[in-house]
Amino acid sequence: MIQNPLYILTVLCGLIFVSEWLTKNTFLKHISGSLLVIILGAILANFGFIPSASNASPVYDSIFTYVAPASIFYLLLGVNLKELRKAGLPMLITFVLGSVGTTLGVLLASQVIDYQAVFGENYQAIAGMMTGTYTGGSANFNAVALHYDVVREGAVYTGIVVADNIVTAIWMLVTLSLPALMMKLRPHKELKMKNGGEMNQYAEREHVGPLRLGLMLFIGLAAMMVSDLLAEQTAIPSVLILTTIALILAQIKAVQDIPGAKMLGMFAVYLFLVVVGAFCEVTALVEVGEHAVSILLFTVTIVLVHGAFLLSMALMLKFDWSMVAIASQANIGGASTALALAKSFKRNDLLLPAILAGSLGTGLGTYLGFLIAGLV
């Protein structure tokens, strides 16, 4: 029964619904939906309600092959590079400096632990994954993980995700208190950004009819087919070609006007992550548990180096501390946490720049992740 494809898809979709409901209506709202959906998938797989890694279903292969790349494509369609000028030059400079700090952090963290022993043959991929996710978010993390097939290493993948969630939550608290603490060290007048009130055009459009949904699916599937064909002819990873196609299409107004990309992207991400959870067998998790401290130390080192580098540059360049905190969150947590931080600071002038900096990270992170994976 558990190998029946229709049964598997029914349970996976049900888990997505349950995880979303729990994170919106219960005390579990304090953890991310992406982590919860992995946990639920792992629980059901280990209790035998859905296939696990040892008896994986062809449905899982299809999700890794088609659904996961589609999630990256649709999320990248929200990156409008023409709008980046509205973020303002100081915000963009701060964000780029944060990305440099992340890259330095990954290279240094690789020396702090015996990363080849901890991560095995996945060490190269994980260096790229962490660079990508701490440049702009999980879409970059998944893009690198897919190319190197780390997604099938359920225990390792989940161990990194858990460490990432812990450190990201702590860093949110750090950046919340950062402006007040740094103002005591170097007081300054707040720099008010222009174009602070143009938020309405970025609101998610809910109405997605069959015509628009069909067109959006056609665009995504065609882009995936073209990227696979080009990858066969070149040495370039298919997901990197897909990222480039998505960024090009995202600049076309006719594509921007089609609703539904974010909805499709988020659902595809959750479907992919449920399967990642199913690959987390208890026996494998025990093996990773031996290296849990090293994985956490690796992750903490990356973020601490990122923070130290960004703060030192901000001191030198005399940047606005609220802007520095928000740019750092755009790196570490993505656009959503950066936006939440701007709201917490009551800096309406930084709401739009926070979103745009996060969008830049989504576009930049995959390229930077593959670069570091290659260098390592």
Keywords, separated by commas or semicolons:
376 residues; mainly alpha; Na+/H+ antiporter like fold; 17 helices; 74% helix; DUF819 domain-containing protein
Write the layout of secondary structure elements.
Blueprint: H1 5-25, H2 33-46, H3 58-76, H4 89-112, H5 115-119, H6 123-136, H7 138-147, H8 154-185, H9 210-233, H10 238-249, H11 253-256, H12 261-278, H13 282-289, H14 292-317, H15 321-332, H16 335-344, H17 351-375
Task: Report the uncertain regions.
Answer: 195-205
Largest sheet: none
Question: What's the Cα radius of gyration?
Answer: 20 Å
Distance between the amino and carboxyl termini: 44 Å
Report the mean per-residue pLDDT as an integer: 83
Strand content: under 5%
CATH structural architecture: Up-down Bundle
The count of strands amounts to 0
Class from secondary-structure proportions: mainly alpha
CATH class: Mainly Alpha
Total helices: the number is 17
**Domains (count):** 1
And the CATH topology? Na+/H+ antiporter like fold
H and E string: HHHHHHHHHHHHHHHHH
Specify the overall morphology.
Answer: globular
Residues in helix, %: over 70%
